[in-house]
Amino acid sequence: MNRRNLLKTISLTIGAGVINTDIFAKIGDDAYVFDIPANPKHTPIHKPITAITLGAGNRGTVYGNFAATFPELMKIVGVAEPIPFRNDKYAKKHKIIDANRFNTWEDVLSKPKMADAIIISMPDNLHYAPCMAALAKGYDILLEKPIAPTEKECRDILALAKKTGRIVAVCHVLRYAPYFVKMKELIEKGAIGEVISIQHFEPIEHTHMAHSYVRGNWHNSKQTTPIILAKSCHDLDIMKWVINKKAEKIVAMGDLKWFKSANAPEGSTDRCTSGCKVERSCPYSAIKEYAERGSRIAVLDIPDDVANKKEAIIEKLKTSNYGRCVYRMDNDQPDHYITSIQFSDQVTANFSMEAFTSYHDRRTRIMGSMGDMVGDMTELVLHDFKSRKETKFIPKAEDVEGYKNSGHGGGDWMLVRDFVQAVAKQDATLLTSTIDESIESHLMGFMAEKSRKTGKVMNVKV
């Protein structure tokens, strides 16, 4: 098939629905901007689905904002959140009555079923018990990744979902990003022939690493989950999903090299606010990052109407982990991690997760028998070996308002839109990231971590 005919016949497969995308905006020679039209399997729903959010932090807010923006599709009717500031803010935004505001997930699930769905966006180590209890109560679930911290718990949730017939959508939001949907579609259409190998790179970005995996909630793998699951189960998942192959073997290496006490500069202190002599020159200064740049300060729970925001931030830095020296935390997450994977049909893949970059957004190279693809989430470039021409595909998508740097390529709300339709119609086939589909990449992550610790090549058995 020549390129002109390829472009004319392109379509996107999302779940069981085929979405035509034969209209492209041409922006230059062999360069096109594309969008994903509405899924034809989506139909008007008679009333919004109702949901209760367990965990009103970053991810709970992202999914909740969908309901606030599209009240005709979803309504948040309850929240469980132990931090009063977050509970108050979430309840106010969604007009949640006092009777439906709770401190813990146990408070919610001790009551009779009171909504269609539960959104689980709590810390990783608190996914399993509420998910199992919610399934037993008859709720459908929107489950933030990772599914659970252990292989057994993941399999338990899968088994109970099947037994109860409930929908469990795992938040592998990259499957819904137009960029990756287009990549998968082109491969399915044979645009590069047979897939031979993949190189996939996740640049975390150095201040994001310091924020989330050195100082932040995921700094200690024993208390949460290993970074390969906490951060990169997205990437393991998107590789297998795009090429539609089964993972067979995996081997991994990586370690914590830089963020440890041996590398603490002379003159540094336990906190950036404690008279550190190198704070002004340190690239990981909490004062510069949070108080001066205003980066990622949502985690500090600063009221919008505070008189002096900078002063309030610095006060938070004096007592929270976010003000501690990155070299003196009790962190253990690797700051560089590589895996090699053998997929079925002799397809191989290399994945690299790196903390020390000045940029984010995934980079991917896919090598095929008749062409290759190179992309960085802002554009996907397809090279045709036969014609020696290249075509650029530029996705028309933005991250959720207020979360422009999520690195999810617009997939967050597209996932929720499909979840709403799936729950309203009780049809899990409207989703591409049900637990049945998503569990394999978690098993890849568990095996990668075992390989990293033992030095052995591990088999992946679904």
Q: Can you describe this structure?
A:
Helix content is 32%, strand content 22%. With 462 residues, the protein is of the alpha/beta class. Among the domains are: 178-260 and 331-407 and 435-459, Dihydrodipicolinate Reductase, domain 2, CATH 3.30.360; 261-323, no CATH class. The strands form three sheets. An eleven-stranded mixed beta sheet has the order 3-4-18-17-16-15-11-14-13-12-19, covered by helices on one side. Helix 5 links the parallel strand 8 (117-120) and strand 9. Helix 11 (286-292) packs antiparallel against helix 12. The protein is globular, with a radius of gyration of 23 Å.
SSE layout and pairings?
Elements: H1 3-9, E1 11-14, E2 17-20, E3 25-28, E4 31-34, E5 49-54, H2 58-69, E6 74-80, H3 84-94, E7 101-102, H4 105-109, E8 117-120, H5 128-137, E9 140-143, H6 151-164, E10 168-170, H7 178-188, E11 195-203, H8 206-215, H9 227-230, H10 233-243, E12 247-255, H11 286-292, H12 309-317, E13 336-343, E14 348-354, E15 363-368, E16 371-375, E17 380-384, E18 389-395, H13 411-425, H14 435-454, E19 458-459
Parallel strand pairs: 4-18, 5-6, 5-8, 6-7, 8-9, 9-10, 11-14
Antiparallel strand pairs: 1-2, 3-4, 11-15, 12-13, 12-19, 13-14, 15-16, 16-17, 17-18
Helix pairs in contact: 5-6, 6-14, 7-10, 10-14, 11-12
InterPro entries: Gfo/Idh/MocA-like_OxRdtase_C (IPR004104), Gfo/Idh/MocA-like_OxRdtase_N (IPR000683), Gfo/Idh/MocA_Oxidoreductases (IPR051450), NAD(P)-bd_dom_sf (IPR036291)
Pfam family, one: GFO_IDH_MocA
Organism: Pedobacter yonginense
